[in-house]
Amino acid sequence: MPALTDDARAKVNLTLRVVGRRVDGYHDLESVVAFCDCADRLTLEPGGELHLATTGPRAQDCGEAADNLVLKAARLLGERVADLQTGKFTLEKVLPVAAGIGGGSADAAAALRLLARANRLARDDPRVIEVARLTGADVPVCLASAACVMTGVGETLLPLALPEMPCVLVNPGIAVATKDVFAALGLRHGELRVGVADVIRARAWPDGDAPRERWIEQLAAGSNDLEAPARSLQPVIDDVLAALQGAEGVGLARMSGSGATCFAIFDDAADAQRAARALQVEHPTWWVHAGVLN
Length: 294
Known about the structure:
single chain, alpha+beta, Ribosomal Protein S5, domain 2, Alpha-Beta Plaits, 2 domains, 6-stranded mixed β-sheet, 4-stranded antiparallel β-sheet
């Protein structure tokens, strides 16, 4: 079988509300998620023993291969699918790690899509879905890689007809551990962060025909509840947000996930490109990407 390739697109949390912490320690979330056109690339050469090699500008940030979520997902699927054909994975690492944009989760999701193709499994095969959930909280949403409202601990996905949105993503070159951000949020086991009425009340999002400006207005009315604790741990996030908010033509600037990557949405792609170029000149050590969210 010839080599198979898939893109692991960056996940962006346009909003992120922490509903509360469950008695088992996991946090219930409600998040509007979109995906960007920047991505890692994963290749599978089917046949032979399971193996992972990393290349690309951020290969050195991946850590030990044995701990990579690509291999974890493959091994978990192999426990559930008899005679699963695996092989050699090659990961071209482009996205920053521990950055709030689901890089490792997107890589694992790409691995599951490639293994499904190599073994003639449907992407929505219950075994594939189960493994996605077991591999990590963000892996199910990355498996679909489509705009949605994500709730629970990441297992419930409601599709959204989100229009294409010009954007700029910026990471200041620091890693932020998700567990540290949730620890700084400080919720006790079984503690709700919002009232019961707020949990029951569902926000109505625009339909597919709504203009981009309407979406930006609705998204701006939300927030990222992890932004404040992340900024307390890494104050440089303040600098990133200030730089994005000061760009011409920006409609919304916010942190994604648990940080430290931040995003800005623009109404015009040319404004996004200009902002990205200016940021790269002013902050040459920052990772900057101008592209499209959808």
